[in-house]
Amino acid sequence: MGKITIKDVAAMAGVSVGTVSMTLNNSPKISEATKKNVMEIVEKLGYRRDPYARSFSLSSSRSIGFIAPGFVNPFFGEVAEALQATVEEKNNSLMFGISNDSAKQEAKLIDQFLDRGVDGLIIIPAEDVHPDLTQIKRLLSESFPMVFLTSYYKELPYHTVMADLASGSYELTRSFISAGLKNIIIITGSPDLIPFSERIYGFRRAFDEVGLPFDESRVIISDGMSYEGGYAAIDRIFDERKPDGILAINDMMAMGVIGRLKSKGIRIPEDVSVAGFDDISIASIQETPLTTVAQPIRPMCMAAVEKLFDMIAGKDVPAAVEKLPVRVQHRNSSRM
Amino acid sequence: MGKITIKDVAAMAGVSVGTVSMTLNNSPKISEATKKNVMEIVEKLGYRRDPYARSFSLSSSRSIGFIAPGFVNPFFGEVAEALQATVEEKNNSLMFGISNDSAKQEAKLIDQFLDRGVDGLIIIPAEDVHPDLTQIKRLLSESFPMVFLTSYYKELPYHTVMADLASGSYELTRSFISAGLKNIIIITGSPDLIPFSERIYGFRRAFDEVGLPFDESRVIISDGMSYEGGYAAIDRIFDERKPDGILAINDMMAMGVIGRLKSKGIRIPEDVSVAGFDDISIASIQETPLTTVAQPIRPMCMAAVEKLFDMIAGKDVPAAVEKLPVRVQHRNSSRM
DNA sequence: AACCTCCATTGAACCGTTTCAATCATGATT
DNA sequence: AATCATGATTGAAACGGTTCAATGGAGGTT
To answer: Do B80 and A71 form a contact (C-beta atoms < 8 A)?
Structure first.
């Protein structure tokens, strides 16, 4: 028994193939009576349109590609979840790839996605200090629909939706200063990368506006923006630096910082205030609930998808970095 | 300027479209000289095969669908990551959907995936007590390639790759008994669901084999297999039940259990031993590192993908539940 | 020189939709 | 009764690959 095609339906319903097709697409040109008749046959035969033929005809796969650095940091899992829900509402599918923060891997994934015919791409840029962006640049020059999420590549401030982390960082730092903390530091990755430079910028601005001297030594460059990274950073700098306020670049790292401080017998927040960024769901349920800057995940995903679909629809979307407001979430890991 | 098609390449190379196609597919029937010539033109024109036409011709999208309950529990994020890597090695893409533990949503996602023409499905069953499985049953009867991962639906013990959680549970319980714990309980979801019944089974067997009486009150049925769920369960049963050993059904819940116990001033593991399941990456980096049963995520994903591709290739894969060995990971949350 | 083999290449059928100009049917208008 | 307008339906082209039977050509054998 062969596959049931639109022809079989047409034959059995006594209409042309075109009529069946238009019925399935709910075209207003087909009379209700005919539609009803055709749909009955469709039902009876259990007919289902061939997705390959359909994509071929339409030149669209109604699917988009999503690239994230990975799911070790649950923040990205939460983004993936929100993104999937948003894309699904538009009756599209989401394919995903994991870059492991390597721009090279990212390029490979993009290539794969293009070979699969995705209609557009949503990319969380890899935190890669020396990214090779030739491929992305080529796609941008061809105006292939592509939106950067949560950050962007410094050279390419196009079509981006992210959180206003600079403001979040600023506000958080101000609150640390107001709480009377004197020796505040930030533990971050390379300032060459947007996710870090934004946070550093806000951090610095807080001192400037309060009129406090800013010393570069407040900025601790570390690598490994993970629990282990935070743990190791404390080992390396705490005894010498003796901070009473620590901003870690994300919640996972902040948790590592707290873990190491506690194991050294330091009290939080009495001795040291700690805060992170992202507000991942475990941040609030730690033994010491974490003060953090909450990224508006849902709104960001919705805005990114909106932007992407506008581009796919051929609208002329101006290249812009859209920064959504954040919320500073005070919890027990910092003094007020 | 129109799209560059295989015809353009053929014309410029002075060969037929068939030759170009076979060259691109690296057919041994084409001479090396011709291939080289054709590839040069391909390069020059920047030609790229149309993925839609290709899928259409081949009746394959080289993509598979993956359904997970969500990423709130990072365990699923880790599975997704491993799965993606495995699928990518096979030059296929992974689409994903999130069921939120609703079989209804799962069915909807499956439908969507079928409409997109995925070659197969990998499903982490929803923890839904009254699932409507008609659609899945239909697909199974059509022998559509489909593999269940980490668990299966009780009525449908087909094509499954999971961890041997019963053994893990057994071993863990034995170690609790050996450590001299007297009042051991397990906090679990509905025993109607495989992920829970497996763990309960192993738990029970440990008592049986040691010759200890087993009392049903050792099994605490709870809902919400999350941090909050664990927290709430302790609130509800601890004072009355006074356990000295607690198995939580997964690591997130175990963390909730620990969180609540500590806030009550109970010492872990001195007063109470706690263990979880999954060995998610944060389990080891908690303030009190968690004793847990590690699921072999990578091997499970590899086995599942292998199975699925065999099915897609038309091989006759016997329906079977494959259980991979687990490893009990002892850490500080339990006495030895 | 005629015949045979073998390998490389060709060319056309095929896949299952969508789309749209052309046709047909119906009822209204003169 | 002839003409027109409107709306429903048809039929065939188009999409861009893959595949394979048929063809062509070069080299070897008799």
So the answer is: yes
Quote the number of domains for chain A.
2
pLDDT tens for chain B, 336 residues: list them.
578 999 999 999 999 999 999 999 999 999 999 999 999 999 999 999 999 999 999 999 999 999 999 988 999 999 999 999 999 999 999 998 999 999 999 999 999 899 889 999 999 999 999 999 999 999 999 899 999 999 999 999 999 999 999 999 999 999 999 999 999 999 999 999 999 999 999 999 999 999 999 999 999 999 889 999 999 999 999 999 999 999 999 999 999 999 999 999 999 999 999 999 999 998 998 889 999 999 999 999 999 999 999 999 989 999 999 999 999 999 999 998
Strand partners, B124: none
State the smallest CA–CA distance between residue B242 and chain A in angstroms.
22
Tokens 């959504």, located at residue? A324
A77 chain-B contacts, CB cut-off 8 A: 71, 74, 76-77, 80
Nucleotide D8 C1' to residue A7 CA (A):
19
Is position A136 within any domain? no
Same domain, A55 and A169: no
Full residue range of the structural domain in which residue B48 is found: 1-59
Does residue A75 sit within a domain?
no
Q: Which two tokens stand for residue B40?
A: 């040069």
Choose the mutation target among A54, A62, A84 for the interface with B, i.e. most B CBs under 10 Å.
Answer: A84
| Of the residues B59, B74, B106, the one at which a domain ends | B59
Which CATH number fits the domain that encloses residue A2? 1.10.260.40
Question: Considering CB atoms only, which of A52, A114, A259 is closest to B287?
Answer: A259
The whole-model pTM stands at: 0.92
Q: Domain containing A192 — which CATH number?
A: 3.40.50.2300
Of A51, A84, A255, the CB nearest to B97: A84
Whole-number Cα distances in Å, B92 to A135, A136, B226:
21, 22, 33
**Residue B5: what residue type?**
T
- The SS3 of residue A15 is coil
CB contact under 8 A, A88 and B78: no
Q: Are residues B169 and B290 located together in one domain of the fold?
A: yes
Separation in Å, CA of B47 to nearest CA in chain A:
12
CB contacts of B53 in chain A (<8 Å) are: 56
Domain boundary among the residues A295, A311, A331 is at: A295
Length of chain B: 336
